[in-house]
Records
---
Amino acid sequence: MAEGSSASAGNRVVIAIVGPTCSGKTAVGIELAKLVGGEIVSADSRQIYRLIDIGTAKPSDKERAAVPHHLIDTVPLDEEVSAGTFGKLGREAIEGVFSRHQIPILVGGSGLYVRAVIDGLFDAPDVDGGVRRELRVRLKSEGEEALLLELKRLDPEAANGLIPQNYKRILRALEIYYSSGKPISQLRKENKLTPGFRTLQFGMRLERGELYSRIEKRVDEMISAGLVDEVKELLRRGFEPGINSLQTVGYREAISYVQGKIRFEDMVSLIKMNTRRYAKRQVTWFKKDPRIIWVGVDGKSPHEIAEEIAGRFTSA
């Protein structure tokens, strides 16, 4: 089911800037928007939530004042936004940018959410409440690996590339299978949405040592900026530590520290280690997409990188 006219899609171009955390996407996106006359549409699965600012590295007030930003501070902290819902919100924001005769610049490192916006995700069928409850009981009693093996048997295509830690996606695929009687991979093909625009994706590529150095620096800056105090305030206001938005690198470890489960030094070390692991998963995800044009960022300023992308965009 198309969301826009395919005839007009060729003239309606979205620029996407993707890559791992700490690769400089935010700064490049802002510089690019200034060069080409654009607005930023965030494709970050956590910056969309209100109240979590420091640990999500949201653009500063100054940066947001320089260029319009969308899908930041949009959703209450205790709500959950699926990739499908995010995709719809992202396409609505993109249509708004087009209506103002500006160029939408999609910026983010949440690979599934980027894909949900630019490729569209299918409208999932309703899930039976009993099925959902039963699978969650089984998750606790049998574990993630058992459910992943079950998904591999029922829907090998959907299970491809998943690991036990991807239990939310495993549960989702099993919920849909047992509720509809069809594999989620089949439903995706039958009901895929087609956005009414084309996308040029540019990936931020930098040497691993430099990436890890940037991660170390950012984590230290987040701690200095008051990440622990931010977490204390969220807990004081009554937000449950287990809500989806707080199952985020940085917040999860800081909550453990505030609750007295780990030492301060361990919290910092864990945030850095888990951020490196997350960045590695991001790189792996984006490398699988042959449409991405990779841009080397080592030794270049955000403006220089933006000029390179702008040149490729105008000649595309």
Note: The beta strands are 13-18, 38-42, 69-70, 103-107, 198-205, 293-296.
---
Amino acid sequence: MSQASIIDALRAARLSGEKLASYPGPAPASMAEAFAIQTAVRTTIGWTLAGWKIGCTSERAQKALHTDGPFPGPLYRERIYGAGAHVETLASNSRTTEPEVAFTLARDLSARDKPWTVDEVLEAVATVHPSIEIVNPRLPKGFNDVVEWYVADGGLSHALVLGPGVKPLARSDYARITNRISINGISKYTGIASNALGGPELALTWLANSLIASGLFLREGGVVTTGVITDVFETQIGDFVKASYDLIGDVSVQL
């Protein structure tokens, strides 16, 4: 099968939410090919690019997905929800639920002669948000696949629930953000933001420079969510999940 068939199948699965019963072609041969497939799906799906997610910024997530580094995936305006929203999923979907620290940007971080530094990237932050990402791989093996499929499959994102924004923090505060997770009112998990690539400010900086290397860049008004900071966990249809963060507030979702 051609790369066009893979692109068509992944786009259709993203739009429908349905898991693919079989592979639409061979696995991408490289991360560059995987990102090219992701880009083709993103630019033809008909949705509005609202920003980016960073997958596998924590060692726990990398272990779960059998990879050793982060990767980007698009966030779509059509799949971003406010705090307390009801996010629909299908019975066949995964509902891996990931509490994350997210940012919105006050200005572009476009290409230049040298990489952006952490301090420069933080100067471009408009607001900081508590968030919950719902992850759903659409390929047959789910989380038991090769990382190239995860990248091709849009970083596996299904939806992002974005809590209210607060003013930027001091650089030293980001890695120290902690959170507490409850499911249906029962306390379940805790996390710390340093689990995401050493801190969300470092993950954001990685993405700013990684996108430039791929011919893209972070844009004013864009949303970036920086990766799970708790254990990786599944939820069920009907679950109510609340994530309470110190310093940046609370966010919840009804599945």
Note: Helices lie at 3-16, 31-44, 59-64, 118-123, 147-152, 171-174, 200-213.
---
Amino acid sequence: MVGAPQAVLFACGLNSVRSPMAAGLLQQMFPQAMYVRSAGVRKGELDPFAVAATAEMGADISAHKPITFEELEDWEGLNFDLIITLSPEAHHKALELTRTLAAEVEYWPTHDPTGTSGNREQKLAAYREVCEMLLRRIRRRFARVGAPSG
């Protein structure tokens, strides 16, 4: 892709942990530089651990409402030039969509922290790890966009 993407969609299975975290982090880094959304193959409930881990990084996703690809398409269309998928099922869905969309698709395999057992601190640590990994990937991928404001 030449230049920076104008509109980025992050996608995962339920749009309740990984994709809203990634979208929140990118939005926080470049509040005006690009349009950022997230969607899921199916719709889950926003995970409070995802909200907590992302808040520690300075991004507020507490108002996020999980949505599916179909709902996003119905509400505003799928006008994205980059779709970053974080789970295998989201990747397959995005590749299916590129039959009719001129979007670049990147797959960032990302661990789902929801299965982590243990106490609250152990669970939160797993979400932090995912959040930090996403932040590193975002910084690397979007380093050319310009100096982040935050």
Note: The chain is about 40% helix and 15% strand.
---
Amino acid sequence: MIRDLAILFIHLVVTVARLFGPGGARSVVAESLLVKHQLLILNRCHARAPVLQPADRIIAGLCAILMRPTRVLRSAIVLRPSTILSFHRALVKRKYRLLFTPKNRGKPGPTGPSPELVSAIVETKRRNPNFGYQRIADQIALAFNIEIDKDVVRRALAKHYRPEPGSNGPSWLSFLGHSKDSLWSVDLFRCESLILKSHWVMVVMDQYTRRVTGFAVHAGAVDGPIVCRMFNSIIGSSLGPQYLSLDNDPLFRFHQWNANLRILEVMEVKTVPFVPLSHPFVERLIGTVRREYLDQVPFWGALDLERKLGLFKDYYNHERAHRGLAGTPPTRKAVSRTERSLAWMITAGKSNAGDYTSCPLPLE
């Protein structure tokens, strides 16, 4: 009781001192009005996130103008985590807008092909699925007398053309991923910390079981030696894969990276250039990590991000149901695969008098 009276007396002395300062009465009245209005907003509805009316925003804005900046944050009691995350995303967008927007406002670049030409390109590809970019460009130049570059055709098809469902079979990575038990995928993506520092994350996954092998984090720019160090830290002392699928990123063309794969005796499988659909599993995993975790959980630095990605890895491998595996987590898929392989080897060993070396593993 005595402690509470002492705290109240201290607050009273501080308030009286603020009242006698320049603009003190105005600041105290505005702060009291802002706190009372926030309490009214919280008591207005029992929903998790109260809906603010225009009058509420006007009152909060006027009170914030009349108050001192140091007292505004102390008076904010209706502050949700989504507000902080939205503010962080806005800062990230502002950062990259300032970094990559040209300083000199010159003339705009070319507008690209006309809608009629894009329609002709897409229709030509739809009627002739086996035509390549150069063949389509030559055909349009012959039919319409319009000179067009094959790169323009490629960009137009990448943006506007979608193959019909069922017209094409699975990609080579999908086919190999279901046939080989030692095909992994690797890719890099970038995320921003709360202090707007860029962090690169390498993710490695097993194609067959959809199991996340590991994450590696690096703060700042990356090059060939750093990419090798990140990949080796994920593999560790365990046995690496026989095949590794990766895209055509320039980081995977450094001589250090190629030498590292030769030392590990890993054969790389390159995807189709400019076609993200040819690298589907790891691209979908990166989208899942962003959508289900990183967009909801902020981080401060590299160590904090590594710890949080480790928690997500355990959740993804052991507890998260996977639609591509009929609701089975990746770890259970790997265990069932091992059990079936051992059972097949035992059955084959009985018929071959224990000679396991000549018995290949069954393909899925």
Note: The chain has a mean pLDDT of 77.
